[in-house]
Amino acid sequence: MTNKDTSPEAIRRRTLAALDILDSAPEDEFDALVRAARRIFGARTAYISLIDTDRQWFKSREGFEPSEVSRECSICATAVDEGREIVVENLQEHPVYGKKPEIAAMPHFQFFATIPFMGPSIDGLSAPIGTLCVIDDRPWIAAREELDELRHLAKVIESLLRSRLRAKLLETALIERKELVDELRRTQRQFELAEEMAKVGHWRMDLESQELFWSRQTAAIHAIENPTKEHLEGGLDFFPAHDRPRIAQAVEECVTDGTPYDLELDFRDAKGVFKRVRAIGEREMVEGKPVALIGVFKDITERYKLETQLRAAAHADVLTGLPNRARLTEYLDDGISCKRKHGTPMAVLLIDLDHFKDVNDQLGHEAGDRVLNGVAAQLLGEPFAGQMAARLGGDEFVLVLEDEQLLADLPGTLDLLLGKLRFEIGREGEIMPVSATIGAAWLTDCNDDSSALLRCADYALYQAKRAKRGTASICPDAIAGERLRASPQLRIVN
Q1: DSSP code, position 143
Q2: What is the model's pLDDT at position 373?
Q3: What is the pLDDT of residue 401?
Q4: Which of 66, 113, 180, 280 minimizes the number of CB atoms within 10 Å of its CB?
Q5: CB of 479 within 8 A of CB of 456?
């Protein structure tokens, strides 16, 4: 009699054989975990894989076509063999994995995180048998909380596999029902804990009876401890009135056509607290017939607030708080389209501070910053309040004029602005005058996009500087078009 091989590889093979899971049909429990890993974490690809003798076979997958790959080229196989997590910010740049031809052939594989899971114990022995993996087409650094969520889902997989093994043994050996039921209850509780951790709940609506079920976390997101039939039937009341037709239409299309939906919506819970939620729904089919709608409901308020703050920061100048070049370009593109449609005027003023470098060199950058903030304050004050003011960078600003009174006498408006931008900065014995030179351009048929309009204003600014700093000029008709054909080649405002 020979002793059984107790190496991890041998244990893994015996475990997979006992589970009878390789090349098995899809199962809802595993598919649900993959969908959760992908959708909750916003990844392009997620899968559950098992490591066979010479291949990596995918029990469930989303965003990934092959059903198996060679074990030789598998990073997940490395994670299983070494019994460790592998998290890579950018596969393409990794000194080891990035050199694999398989990775180089898949440039959309960048962020990579794989969590090994243990197989159930057989004869008192267990070993890693597969991985839960998330892949994205952008490099990023996973937060500790995100990896904790993946680890928890991997623990749920382990629980499912233990339940599966017990079910297999039950078929042949009639193991005690209570043990299996207890395990299933623990698995259900693990799902509940996973939902609480991820702030995601699930729901199900029976199409025949119209009965609606909310999970504990779905009710928690609604701030309802014990949902009643009235709460469930009035689910749309938690959303703004203008969104309710869109939600109703998405649900109707899901029921009739099987079209899944994925919506991000504003939401007020039962206590009146504003939230941002993500609602995902799809149709459940049994023997080719629709029987229910199922879905998940996630509180994304924190992510939404952070993204909103980041978007605002990305379009603002750090020093002055004015919109930056990117935001100005968006504004001009939208505004030009509107002005063209309605035939209303617009003028762009490009403002350049005179000898600003001397201020920084002689008085210091703190003084220079005060000058820049002072200019911003003038552009935001009367009579220019309500007009679009932006800082391009350095000592360059832009003022977009759309007010009819300001545009009616553009030379006079330029003269007024020049006066507001003349002031002094410094300390006793070191006072320096500050002024600006301005180039203005009308919106015409010849400059009907943001780049052309700014180039015209830049041309006028160049002409003003050549003539005399501290003055303004309006773009000549040769560039600006028919509207200024009768204007002089250069209009100097003293």
Answers
A1: P
A2: 93
A3: 94
A4: 66
A5: yes
